[in-house]
Design goal:
The protein is of the alpha+beta class and 397 residues long. It has 4 domains: 60 residues; 86 residues, 2-Layer Sandwich (Beta-Lactamase); 72 residues, Helix Hairpins (Orthogonal Bundle); 168 residues, Histidine kinase-like ATPase, C-terminal domain (Heat Shock Protein 90). 51% of the residues lie in helices and 20% in strands. The longest helix has 59 residues.
Length: 397
């Protein structure tokens, strides 16, 4: 009996040990399974997050990206490419080209195509297509859409600039060379005086062109100038002082309305004066004698408008979109007579851009022009409001 009890006790102990060990093993297995499930969930979550980040990155690209599966069905279109699905005529043409390129790529053929759209707006697109797996043509395909319109425009601007600057410098230099050659064989003092005066005129023309090129270059390089608080009335008064001799020479009356001294902007004073001077200088050059040029300043809580109005020959509507280009002239003959370089309005545009502003023009041929320079207004907490006196500069007859 004692032996039987001992045997039962031993068996019970063994079973208890087995139960404990089994429970422990089961607990370990369950813990391992839980860890594997958690890891799997983490891996899945990481993959989803990675895919989302990748999609955001592709959506942020300026390139359009379109992917299709092996049947040709579109499976992905990023944000840049989605604008070509608006149904407009030009976009329909792009969609047709995309479909054609995708079909070729599904057959294993990579291709590249340039589309010229004459607008409006004028646009140049480069479409490139590849199969997703060159060894398996049925794996799907991708098309990239690159809008190179701005690059093409800048290339054209550079080409035009080189051609224009070559012409602008070659013409007066050639004239100086010819006049100097004539001067060498001339004995008449009166003729010598006239030739010398012409040489001086052409030399000054070259100098003005170079000065304006240097000014434009400085403004373009200094795209983020040091911004100080600048009083608009100071800018107006300084520009008027600089232009006064030319206005008197052309028999033009200058008038500027009074401006509150608390009307200020954040900017580079030298650039702002240069921009306004060029606007007033153009107004004086293209105005008829005994007419007037008016400068008015209007301001609200957000912006300051500086308008320069003349009563001159005006600008044809066909030229309004191009007058801010370098060396573009509406009337080349008159520009030569007045000594214009064709760079003044380009300088104004760059100054406006550097100050987060804008410049616009309203004009009617034969009815004068109004150029308006708009700048963000700066609000000073200091007490204001003195008011500058109106300025009228009358020409001397």
């Amino acid at each position: 009996m004692a032996l039987y009890a001992a045997l039962v006790t031993a068996v019970a102990i063994v079973l208890a040990v087995l139960v404990v060990r089994t429970r422990a093993h089961a607990t370990q297995v369950a813990a391992a399974a839980a860890r594997d499930a958690a890891q799997l969930r983490a891996d899945v979550d990481a993959a989803i997050a990675g895919a989302a980040n990748m999609q955001r990155a592709v959506d942020a690209l300026p390139l359009g990206v379109i992917m299709c599966d092996d049947s040709g069905a579109i499976v992905y279109t990023n944000v840049s490419a989605s604008r070509f699905a608006t149904g407009r005529h030009t976009e329909v043409m792009v969609s047709a080209a995309i479909d054609d390129l995708l079909q070729g790529a599904l057959a294993g053929v990579s291709a590249r195509r340039t589309l010229e759209q004459y607008g409006p707006p004028q646009r140049t697109l480069v479409l490139s297509a590849w199969p997703l797996d060159s060894d398996q043509p049925s794996a799907g395909a991708v098309v990239l859409i690159d809008d190179v319109s701005e690059r093409r425009r800048l290339e054209a601007v550079r080409r035009d600039f080189v051609a224009n600057i070559s012409h602008e410098l070659k013409t007066p230099v050639g004239a100086i060379s010819l006049l100097a050659e004539t001067l060498l064989g001339e004995d008449d003092r009166e003729v010598l005086g006239r030739l010398a005066e012409r040489i001086l005129t052409e030399a000054l023309r070259v100098g003005r062109t170079i000065d304006d090129l240097l000014e434009l270059s400085r403004i373009e390089i200094d795209e983020a100038p040091e911004h100080d608080v600048v009083r608009v009335d100071d800018v107006v008064n300084e520009a008027l002082q600089r232009i006064r001799p030319a206005a008197e020479q052309h028999d033009i009356t200058l008038h500027a309305d009074s401006v509150d001294t608390d009307v200020t902007v954040l900017g580079d004073r030298r650039q702002l004066v240069s921009a306004l001077y060029n606007l007033v200088d153009n107004a004086v050059k293209y105005s008829e004698p005994r007419s007037s040029v008016e400068i008015t300043v209007t301001a609200d809580q957000r912006a300051v408008d500086i308008a320069v109005r003349d009563h001159g020959v005006g600008i044809p509507s066909r030229d309004l979109d191009r007058i801010f280009e370098r060396f573009y002239r509406v009337d080349r003959a008159r520009s030569r007579e007045t000594g214009g370089t064709g760079l003044g309005l380009a300088i104004v545009r760059h100054v406006a851009v550097n100050h987060d502003g804008d410049v616009r023009v309203e004009s009617q041929q034969g009815g004068g022009s109004t150029f308006t320079l708009t700048l963000p207004r700066h609000h000073d907490t200091a007490p204001s409001p003195a008011r500058s006196e109106p300025v009228t500069e009358r020409s001397r007859s």
